[in-house]
Amino acid sequence: MTERDMLLKKIGTCKFAITDIDLFLDTHPGDTDMLKKREEYAEMLKPLVESFEQKYGPLSKCDGGTNTWSWVKDPWPWDPEG
């Protein structure tokens, strides 16, 4: 597994955890422990995304900074390196 693949896997894992916690908080809005856990995952996610985008480009159209078309450069995040 390449470094790019590992970063994508870690990013996906953090995003999944955040979404899962968000769904839990929809039904348990007063659970401060889970809110703290969500914040921990969000803080874990930031450097992973920054690292990926610095090395491989933006993950989505909104993450490209001022050049909104830079996100379409090959390879796409889900494409294998080649």
Short description:
The protein is 61% helix and 0% strand.
What does it look like?
The chain contains two helices and no strands. It has 82 residues and is mainly alpha-helical. The chain has helices at residues 3-27, 32-56. The model has no long low-confidence stretch (mean pLDDT 86).
| Largest sheet composition | none
Distance between the termini: 13 Å
H and E string: HH
Poorly predicted sequence stretches spanning 5 or more consecutive residues? none
Strand count: 0
Please work out how many helical segments DSSP would assign: 2
Mean pLDDT across all residues, rounded? 86
Shape descriptor: elongated
Write the layout of secondary structure elements.
Blueprint: H1 3-27, H2 32-56
Task: For the structure shown, list the relevant keywords.
single chain; 82 residues; 61% helix; mainly alpha
